[in-house]
Amino acid sequence: MNFSNDLDPTKKVVAVVGAGFGGLKFCKAFRSPLAETVLFDRQNHHLFQPLLYQVATAGLSAPEIAQPVRTIFAGQLRLSIYMDEVEAIDLSGQNLVVDGQACHFDYLVLAVGAVTSYFGHPEWEQHAPGLKSLADAGRIRNDVLQAIEHAEAEIDPVALRRLLTFVIVGGGPTGVEMAGAIADLTKHTMRRDFRRIDPAQARIVLIEAGPRLLAAFHPTLSERARRDLTQMGVEVRLNTMVRGVRAGEVQLDGEILPTDNIVWAAGLQAPPLLAKLPVPKDRAGRLQVAPDCSLPGYANVFAIGDCVALKDAKGLQVPGVAQGAIQMGGHVAKIITAELDAAARKAPVPARKPFAYFDKGSMATIGRARAVAQVGPLRFGGFIAWLMWLGLHLVFLVGLRNRLAVLLQWFYAYVVYRRGARIIWSQKVDALPAAAVPPR
Amino acid sequence: MNFSNDLDPTKKVVAVVGAGFGGLKFCKAFRSPLAETVLFDRQNHHLFQPLLYQVATAGLSAPEIAQPVRTIFAGQLRLSIYMDEVEAIDLSGQNLVVDGQACHFDYLVLAVGAVTSYFGHPEWEQHAPGLKSLADAGRIRNDVLQAIEHAEAEIDPVALRRLLTFVIVGGGPTGVEMAGAIADLTKHTMRRDFRRIDPAQARIVLIEAGPRLLAAFHPTLSERARRDLTQMGVEVRLNTMVRGVRAGEVQLDGEILPTDNIVWAAGLQAPPLLAKLPVPKDRAGRLQVAPDCSLPGYANVFAIGDCVALKDAKGLQVPGVAQGAIQMGGHVAKIITAELDAAARKAPVPARKPFAYFDKGSMATIGRARAVAQVGPLRFGGFIAWLMWLGLHLVFLVGLRNRLAVLLQWFYAYVVYRRGARIIWSQKVDALPAAAVPPR
């Protein structure tokens, strides 16, 4: 089909690629009656990525951190949503190619996020999954739980040790959260569940190439995180490079770590879709956009969020976090709204403001009742920071209708016809035999 | 490993295969201090199967109807649990073969349930999944939701119709519940979610070979179910045989139903594990056990639940429902307890009582606020029956700690170190490339 065919031809077409934090914010903020918006995403859901590690460690189930995109925008006029993969972008011709068909755009917003980077070693992925999607989280959860089940029936002490060793590569927020959650899971949740093995004997190793954890935080909080994790039984290895990953082992400088459980939280890069775009990129493939978030040479095309490398109006690199994507989404929505409005009134095109990032603060959870947080000059650790983290995330999830709704989800489903779990969640559907994928 | 090696050699070994309703009840009821119990299941969870159709239609998420077996029995002494598939049963040698290793038993309880039967056409399975496991439910849910997403981007009217046609084969409780839930999903839940298509236009066809739905219920309730489903927009086809299933169509006598969505709820049979046992079986491969649930010729081996064909003490066929399995599990636990006790006291072996089934009643839900129920001579339909159904299932789930726990699941996980979602749920892991399965 031609995706633009059904749209009102008197209106401009704004295409949005990606329903993450940036794309979602853009679509919520952009309500111009002068345009039709077309949103594409490969998934049918928006994912609350900051809690993905909870799904990977069996703390939450998938529907609790995901929301169907259609539900979020139910009733929003002039917004068409397609669960489809954008295959190519023709910037000059102003067309997207989706499922072999064209979608013309007047404006384009690229909010495609990031994918896991193995720094030139894609073959490591099969042994060391990243954590970017529900499928990733489901895979890690199954692997972790199955390893412990297999350990219960394993008599070879070497194989047993390998099954009960968990290596997390990367000491950023995701790595810290995964290490802490696996420690909680094995050393507390599962404590009484097994007869032959003691899951509390699990070895958990967190590997960071740099000199400290949570490099984006103040050094005192990095040290606090290291100390807390160590107390929880996690081996923290700083200044340690991973040289290789194979079935059953992680190779370090002069050392082999035998393990059947590796989680890769070490790096991100821009998705392959952006590789062919004729615009400057940084080493991770992220688009180096103009100060207004537009692509150099293509004023009608914007990129926002994790797929972007941008020093903002204050000269600071905008961090690859939800707040950055959300604020960029709002910024671009304002620009396009104003320009459409000016064009309709035949007024001069208003000047575009450069994007300015407002840092609301950062937090990372470490484990049960432990977190670190910084807000401007203030820094918090331990239980206080964890309460802040809990409160903030509960508020965010309530915003997604996923927290309070869970309370009465089942009864509620019958009363108002909502179903909280309407999430397409499959593990590696692409790896299934063709027969299992419904024909188009 | 030899699974019996770690056990107390002064005690008898009772092996249990299957952690469904029957196996679970047996292990709960069997607490003899004179024996070690070893429980095997391929999954790490007990599944509340009566609500599986809710997972398949996105009403509930997997962890809400499943409970880790280890959690259920946490702290129960003399019970070993292995997540492993039993490969063979040597009745005379009193050994199970599990993962290539032996497990000797003094008593054996087979509670292996049933699998979907395609009546000699296993090739239909790829186009018409059954509904027996969380993986099945996940597959059906993904297929149903993806079909509707694809419909939104489909312009060919014939292909569009096929995407929005749902055929359920089999008019028993599962078929009736699936048809009603898909009607609720498409005609209510998703009503406002799409722009180009109207999910309420979905065609839902329920096919039953016999003359009425819910053959195990009183005919007035069968008729009530038919009428309710018809009002909800489901086409009910009675006396209709399915002659073939292929990609994109169901073949009936002299008619082709074009559809991309087929659910098979037409038949069950005993699992392949039982095929080689030298005991009489019925046409569906179910074991024809003695009145005490033991296998003819093997007094120390019992079979219970859906894998059994038994006319009970009153001469009535025990139905393949949870109640039947649960009552058999309790019955066998009493027999083995008494015999071990007598042996320890060197008393004569007590006579075994024949199993007597107590019918507590039956119910099936049809849709939002509609159900049918019968308790002895009493029959209920509509809202009253649905309230009964709701209440009973809520009570059951509370029994599993899965309903109330959901309310404060997240906070609770931190307070008492429990995680409600600790369920291994994978879609067709066997179809994944070998690398994705952790090495043993």
Compose a concise summary of this entry.
The structure is a homodimer of 440-residue chains. With 440 residues, chain A is α/β, with parallel strands linked by helices.
Helices and strands, with pairings:
The structure is a homodimer of 440-residue chains.
Chain A: E1 12-17, H1 21-29, E2 35-41, E3 45-47, H2 52-56, E4 66-68, H3 69-72, E5 79-83, E6 86-90, E7 95-98, E8 101-104, E9 107-110, E10 115-116, H4 134-152, H5 157-163, E11 165-169, H6 173-189, E12 203-207, H7 219-231, E13 234-237, E14 242-246, E15 249-252, E16 255-258, E17 261-264, E18 268-269, E19 287-288, E20 294-295, E21 298-303, E22 308-309, H8 322-344, E23 362-367, E24 370-375, E25 378-381, H9 382-399, H10 404-407, H11 409-416
Parallel strand pairs in A: 1-2, 1-9, 2-5, 9-21, 11-12, 11-17, 12-13, 19-22
Antiparallel strand pairs in A: 3-4, 6-7, 7-8, 10-18, 14-15, 15-16, 20-21, 23-24, 24-25
Helix pairs in contact in A: 1-8, 4-5
Our measurement of the CA-to-CA distance between the termini of chain A, rounded to an integer number of angstroms, reads 12 Å
Which residues of chain A form runs of ≥5 with pLDDT under 50? 398-440
Order of neighbouring strands in the sheet with most strands of chain A: 5-2-1-9-21-20
Looking at how many chains there are and whether they match, the oligomeric state comes to homodimer
Shape descriptor of chain A reads: elongated
Individual helix count of chain A: 11
Secondary structure category of chain A: alpha/beta
Largest interface: A-B, 90 and 90 residues
Largest sheet of chain A: 6 strands, mixed
- How much of the sequence lies in strands of chain A comes to 15-25%
